[in-house]
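Thread title: Can someone regenerate the structure for this chain?

I was given the following input by a collaborator and told the matching structure tokens would be attached. They weren't. Posting the sequence so someone can regenerate them.
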Amino acid sequence: MKLKNHNLSLKGISGIFTGVLSLLFIWIIQLLLLDFSSGSQGIGILPISIFEIILGVISLVYILLTYFMVAIINKRRRKKNQLFGWEKNSKKIRMLFLFLLILGGIITYFLIFKGFIKLILPSSLLLYGLGCVFSNRYTNGNSLLLGILFMVNGVFAIIFPKQTILLWGMAFGGYHIIYGFIYFLKSKS
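Best answer:
Regenerated them for you:
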């Protein structure tokens, strides 16, 4: 069996960095939300439409930063292992997540338009979970389990809307750190 050693792996350091970056992003969003809800100064005096644009821009920066960080870390790993170019499975995974990102944008627009803003974070958990489940056949990690955990968090975020940010942070931060750490330990043994 050929080892599936692709460009966008979240195993090891890249998964740990992705989790840490996710927790940092969630912390920034939480601070902005608290400041906005206080309404007294700073972000709190902005109109909600401007605040939504700020959150959208921060989310886009997070997505791009995470993608490039994972690609750069894995490029160094691949160079060390003398693997060059984009591997076929990586292209499939990249196209799958690009499709889900575009679908997520469409769903987000629809949810905002219909006034279901509280469903944006649960839908992102569900879509990312689906992406992990579907990409499992192209990886040698256990992204199936990761995807299932993300989807469970997405369902819980729908059922318990007051805990959505906590569940989102647990998934994007905690699960990625654990996933990366497990494979980091495996690579050292």
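The first helix runs from residue 13 to 38.
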